Amino acid sequence: MKSKGYMAFLVGGALRDLMRDTQPRDYDVVTNASIEQIRLIFRNSKTIGKRFPIVHTYFAGDVIEISSLKSDDAEDVGESQRELLVADANLRDFTINAIYYDIRTFEVIDPLGAIKHLEEKVLVPIGDPYERFREDPVRMIRAVKLSERHGFTIEPELERIIHELGDTMLEIGPGRKYEELTRILLSDYAVEVVTRLRNLGVFRFLWPAGESLLAERGPAILEQARIPVPVHYSRGSFSKETHMKLWLGLFMLSGHQPGTSGKYERAVLDDFLDPLGMPFRNPVVDCLVCLGQLMAQKGAFGGMPLNGEVSNLVEFYVGYFDPKLSHQLEQFHKHHASAKKGRSRRPGEKGKPSGGKRPRGRRRRRRRPAK
Predict the structure, then answer these.
(1) Catalytic pick from 17, 28, 73, 274?
(2) How far is CA 68 from CA 6, 34, 97, 287, 355, in A?
(3) Where does the record place Basic residues bias (predicted)?
């Protein structure tokens, strides 16, 4: 950005963590370039979000998030750097996320006096917290994560407001709810964050089935589901395998007894996840049907096709959660291998011809071209 003549500032969590001698997990950059101009500079990128669009750029497997400096005034052309940063800072969530680092001058810029809050480890919302949380209810989740993961204090009045606005979680889209919750559940601080969200009356609006599950089984079930899941990344996000194994484990730990009907399994899984917009459901459903067949010890296994993705999920579940099914799983693989071998032969073919060569078919006569 700098080499193209644009302003560029490191901002948000990365700068906050660096100032606290903590290794950042990701990096956010803001610039006076537009989203379209950012995309022209970084070809290997994509735009995420509609209301608050950001550009994901990829470097050696890492993702850098770049956004345009925000302003309430659309006519910001000609504004000074100071005015742009103040306008951008006033539209952020908490003061500790509104500190900027200028890569040209190596200067830390603090337009809202947030360094004091950073040193005191206190969360101070920018502007009216009612307005900020209604504008984007995910900010309430972010407040709890900052408190439980980094030790920032949420003042009693702010806790009261979060409790009062808990039902605004219903306004968050299914996909965003799923992404936020999955990130929490795969973290080392999942139990602490979820427990705090429940105590604040927020979690039941985020994932109703999860609220019932935790009320019945306790928060330890979250660790049971998370610990065996291999955390892999794909272009800065959790891999498909990681997503599927986490939610398969949670679903089965909830006490679900799988059957052999894909339609039934899909309906029950959908009820469990509602209103979370989880992708990748089909392999999980196929895995549940396989597990239902294993538990029923059906010798024919319903003739169900078993691809590598589903097989991986089945082996994961059996290996970590139900080793008693190991023998049935071995028989399942033998059946599948035998069925596959049988399908590879031609109808009526009893074995290889002598010499191991296929019999040659009759050669077709070539038609002469018309005169």
Answers:
(1) 28
(2) 11, 6, 16, 43, 70
(3) 334-345, 355-371
* Calpha distance 184→27 (Å, rounded): 19
> Rounded CA gap, 233 and 182, in Å?
13
Mind listing the pLDDT tens digit for each residue in 75-110? Answer: 444 568 888 999 999 999 999 999 999 988 999 999
Task: Give the CATH H-level superfamily of domain 1-122.
Answer: Beta Polymerase, domain 2 (3.30.460.10)
Q: Which residue has the tokens 């973290």?
A: 187
Distance (Å, rounded) from C-alpha 64 to C-alpha 207? 30
Is 270 among the residues known to form the active site? Answer: no
CB burial of residue 357 (10 Å; 0-12, 13-18, 19+): exposed
Contact by Cβ (8 Å): 291, 258: yes
Distance CA 185, CA 227 (A): 10
Poorest-confidence range of 22-26, 144-148, 165-169? 22-26
338 to each of 39, 63, 253, 302, how far by Cα in Å?
52, 45, 32, 14
What are the Cα distances from residue 323, in Å, to 11, 201, 227, 303, 319? 48, 38, 17, 23, 5
**Domain edges within the chain:** 1-122, 233-342
Read out DSSP for 249-278? HHHHHTT----S-HHHHHHHHHHHHTT---
Establish whether 322 is a catalytic residue: no
Annotated catalytic residue within 17, 76, 93, 188: 93
The predicted-structure confidence for 242-278, as pLDDT tens digits, reads as follows: 999 999 999 999 999 999 899 999 999 999 999 999 9
Which residues, other chains included, contact 30 with Cβ-Cβ below 8 Å and sequence gap of 6+? 8, 9, 11, 66, 67, 68, 69, 88, 100
- Catalytic residue status for 62: no
- Maximal C-alpha separation, the chain: 96
202-236 burial code (b ≥16 CB/10 A, e <16): bbbbbbebbbebbeeeeeebbeebbeebeeeeeee
- C-alpha to C-alpha distance for 300 and 336, rounded to whole angstroms: 9
Task: Determine if the peptide bond prior to 283 is cis (ω within 30°).
Answer: no
Q: Which one from 17, 21, 26, 102 is the annotated catalytic residue?
A: 26
pLDDT tens string 159-200: 999 999 999 999 999 999 999 999 999 999 999 999 999 999
